[in-house]
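Please check both lines for our workbook:

___
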Amino acid sequence: MRSTLKKEADFYKFFMDFSGKLIDVGETFQELVNDYSNIESKAAALKAKETECDILTHNILGKLNNSFITPFDREDIYAITKSLDDIVDSIEQVGSRFIIFDVKELRPECTQFALQIMLCLRELDMMFKHLPELKKSSIVRDQIIEINRLENEGDVFYRENLNKLFRNEKDPIELVKWKHLYEQMEECLDACEAVANIVEGVVMKYA
């Protein structure tokens, strides 16, 4: 019994470790946006953290491949792991595109996007800290609801700023550039919600 519980706890710990790394990634991205200097160095730091998360993803999937006992369905563990990795990839891609698109100055909207992403990441971190208690506590459900709310709020912000961009931007290159960047930052929020939605499915099965 102790061995079984330990094997189940391993996956919960993996997810908590991953969500902790997400906080680190989000803070690095927020620092880049709030202080738009030394961009290449900060983007390189994001890339390094993305590589660390790739390694963690491979470790979790390797553990999954070699485990007969898991805390919930294997396909759900796989989906959560891949979706967590998608969040990191999405954030890292924004940083790299600032360089690729030769962005000299950020628009103020980027600060709000970065804040909204950080808020979602903190809610995910709280959710995973309480995931082992999903049968005994409503905290996981509450975090899922909050992540969905933050993503919906981000959707509204994205659409408003996309509309403003098309109304006001006269330079077609700048329009295309910022349309893509807004979409990419909104995808970061979508990726956070995707994780919450998968966990919600787990809660419905096992709570």
Remarks:
- The radius of gyration is 18 Å.
- Confidence is low (pLDDT under 50) at residues 1-5.
